[in-house]
Design a protein that fits this description.
Elements lengths: L1 E6 L8 E5 L5 E4 L10 H7 L10 E3 L5 H4 L2 H6 L5 E4 L1 H31 L11 H8 L2 E3 L6 E4 L2 E7 L7 E9 L2 E7 L22 E5 L13 H15 L3 E5 L5 H14 L8 E4 L1 H11 L7 H7 L11 E4 L2 H9 L4 E5 L9 H8 L6 E4 L8 H6 L4 E4 L2 E4 L3 E4 L9 H8 L9 E5 L3 H13 L5 E2 L5 E4 L2
Parallel strand pairs: 3-4, 4-5, 5-6, 10-11, 11-20, 12-15, 12-16, 13-14, 13-15, 16-19, 20-21
Antiparallel strand pairs: 1-2, 1-22, 2-3, 7-8, 8-9, 9-10, 17-18
Helix pairs in contact: 4-5, 4-8, 6-7
C-alpha cells in the first residue's frame, strides 16, 4: 500500500492524497482546488499528478473549495467512481461547485475576449456546470459513526471534525495481505468550544495518521470576547469615524459565525444601529444549507434557537443578490458593515469593496480567517502599505484589524487534543499536510516531544510506502 500527496503538501490548499492498494484499488482523499498560490495556481490546478480515470473511490472530508473544488475536473477527465461524504457536505458541495463553475466560465470568457483580439488560441474553463451535475450524481451519503463497507476488505467511518457543517475526519480499515491497517485522515480539524459546531470527536486507534497543521505553531485567542470585539470595531468605524467596515469572509462557516455573533448582540440589545449587508449570493445559499442541517449545531446554539428560530437573521441585515445592487453598495459612502467573500480577498465581490475603502482612513478592513501569504488578504494582514487590486496599486490607509480567534481551524492545543485519543507508540507514522512548511517544522518537533516516533512532512507528489 502506498500514499502519494498530490496537494496541500507544504501548503494550505489543493488537498489531495491518493492511496493505492497492492491489488490496484485507488482511493483519493479529497480533491481540492489550489488557491492563492500566485502564478503557480493555474498550473497546479491543471495537472493532478495522477490519472483520474483510474481512481476507484473519492472520500470527501468537507465541502470547502480547497478540498472539493477539483472534483468536476476529475469527472471531466474520466473519473466514474463513487464519492463518499456526509449529507451536509454533499449539499454544500453542490452549492459551492455550481458557484465555482460559474466563476470558471466568467473568468475564461473574459480572458478569451482578450486572446481573441490578439489572435491567440482560446482557453477552456477547468470545468463546466455540466461537469458539476455529473459529479453530483456520483455522491453517496455516509452517516457519522457508521462503519460502511466500501467493498470487501475496505471499511469507512466518518467522525465529526467540528470544522464546518458536515466536516468529517476519515477513518479507513483496510485488509491487505491478511493484515488490517487503520488509516486516519483528519480533513480539517475544528476548534473545541466553537461558536456554532460540536467539538471534534475522538477516533479509533490508527496505524497511520494524515493530519492538517494550518495553525500547528500558534495559539488562538479566546473565543469568548468575539461579540464585544465586533461591537467595538463597528462602533469605532461606523459611529466614531463615519466609515465603512468591510469583512472578507468565507461563504461557508465564517459568514454564518459572524451572523450568529451579530444576532447575539441584537438579542442582548447591544447591536450598533447601522445597515448590515452580506454581499454574496453564495453565502445566502450556504446559510440556508446550515438551516436545513441544525443537527450539527452545538447545545449552546440549540438553546438560543428555543427563543430565536432564526439565529442568522437580525434587524438591519440584507443579503445582496444582483451585481447592480453590489455596485450600488460599493458606491454608497454611508457608514455600514459589509460581509463579502472570498475570505482571502483573492476573488469575488469583496475585492471591489476593498478597492473602494482601502485608501480612506475612515474605513476598516477586518480579517477573520486564514489567508495565504501571497493573497490580498495576506498582504493586508502583513501590513503592506501599497497593494495591487485589479492591476492598479492602492495606498493602504484604512485600518486593518484581525480577529484570529474566529479561525475554523484548530490551533496547536486543539490539534494535540484531537490526537489525545491516540497512543503515540502505536502510530507507525504521522504525516503533516495542509500547512506552511515553517509551521509544520515547529509542530513536528512538538509531536516528537509528546511521543510520536515518526512525524513526516511530505512534499508535492511525494509517495510513501506503508508497511
Amino acid at each position: 500500500m502506498t500514499i502519494t500527496f498530490h496537494g496541500a503538501a507544504r501548503c494550505v490548499t489543493g488537498s489531495k492524497h491518493l492511496i493505492k492498494l497492492n491489488n490496484g484499488t485507488q482511493i483519493l482523499l479529497d480533491c481540492g482546488l489550489f488557491q492563492g498560490m500566485g502564478e503557480e495556481t493555474e498550473d497546479l490546478n491543471g495537472h493532478f499528478g495522477f490519472n483520474p480515470a483510474k481512481v476507484d473511490y473519492l472520500i470527501l472530508s468537507h465541502a470547502h473549495i480547497d478540498h472539493c473544488g477539483l472534483i468536476p475536473r476529475m469527472v471531466a477527465e474520466g473519473f466514474k467512481g463513487t464519492i463518499f461524504s456526509t449529507a451536509p457536505t454533499m449539499d454544500l458541495a453542490r452549492v459551492l461547485l455550481d458557484d465555482s463553475a460559474g466563476i470558471q466560465q466568467q473568468e475564461t470568457e473574459s480572458i478569451n475576449e482578450m486572446r481573441t483580439r490578439r489572435g491567440l488560441s482560446l482557453f477552456k474553463p477547468l470545468y463546466t456546470e455540466e461537469d458539476v451535475m455529473e459529479a453530483m450524481r456520483l455522491f453517496k451519503i455516509v452517516d457519522y459513526n457508521t462503519d460502511f463497507e466500501i467493498e470487501p476488505r475496505i471499511k469507512l467511518r466518518f467522525t465529526d471534525a467540528g470544522h464546518v457543517i458536515g466536516s468529517a475526519a476519515v477513518h479507513l480499515t483496510i485488509l491487505e495481505d491478511a493484515k488490517y491497517t487503520q488509516l486516519t485522515f483528519s480533513g480539517d480539524v475544528g476548534r473545541y468550544g466553537d461558536l456554532l459546531l460540536k467539538n471534534p470527536q475522538s477516533f479509533p486507534q490508527a496505524d497511520y495518521i494524515i493530519l492538517e497543521s494550518t495553525y500547528g505553531d500558534s495559539f488562538h485567542q479566546d473565543m469568548e470576547p468575539l461579540e464585544e470585539r465586533l461591537q467595538e470595531i463597528i462602533n469605532q468605524t461606523c459611529n466614531l469615524k463615519g466609515g465603512k467596515l468591510v469583512i472578507p469572509a468565507f461563504s461557508v462557516g465564517r459568514t454564518q459565525e459572524l451572523l450568529y455573533a451579530l444576532n447575539s448582540l441584537e438579542l442582548r440589545g447591544l447591536l450598533p444601529d447601522f445597515p448590515y449587508y452580506v454581499d454574496s449570493p453564495l453565502s445566502q445559499k450556504a446559510t440556508q444549507v446550515l438551516r436545513e442541517h441544525t443537527d450539527v449545531l452545538n447545545r449552546g446554539v440549540k438553546e438560543v434557537m428555543k427563543q430565536d428560530d432564526d439565529v442568522f437573521k437580525f434587524k438591519g441585515l440584507k443579503f445582496i443578490q444582483s451585481v447592480e445592487e453590489s455596485r450600488a453598495l460599493v458606491n454608497d459612502p454611508r457608514p455600514s458593515v459589509i460581509i463579502s467573500s472570498s475570505g482571502m480577498a483573492e476573488a469575488g465581490r469583496v475585492k471591489h469593496h476593498i478597492r473602494s475603502v482601502v485608501s480612506n482612513d475612515r474605513n476598516t478592513i477586518l480579517m477573520v480567517g486564514y489567508c495565504e501569504p501571497s493573497s490580498l488578504g495576506g498582504e493586508l494582514i502583513r501590513g503592506k502599505k501599497v497593494v495591487s487590486i485589479f492591476g492598479d496599486e492602492y495606498d493602504v490607509r484604512a485600518e486593518v484589524r484581525v480577529i484570529r480567534s474566529m479561525s475554523a481551524h484548530g490551533d496547536c492545543d486543539d490539534l494535540l487534543k484531537f490526537l489525545s485519543c491516540q497512543d503515540p507508540e502505536k502510530v507507525k507514522a504521522l504525516y503533516l499536510v495542509h500547512g506552511e512548511y515553517d509551521t509544520q517544522t515547529v509542530f513536528r518537533n512538538r509531536l516528537l516531544d509528546i511521543g510520536f516516533k515518526e512525524v513526516r512532512i511530505p512534499g508535492q507528489h511525494q509517495m510513501e510506502e506503508l508497511e
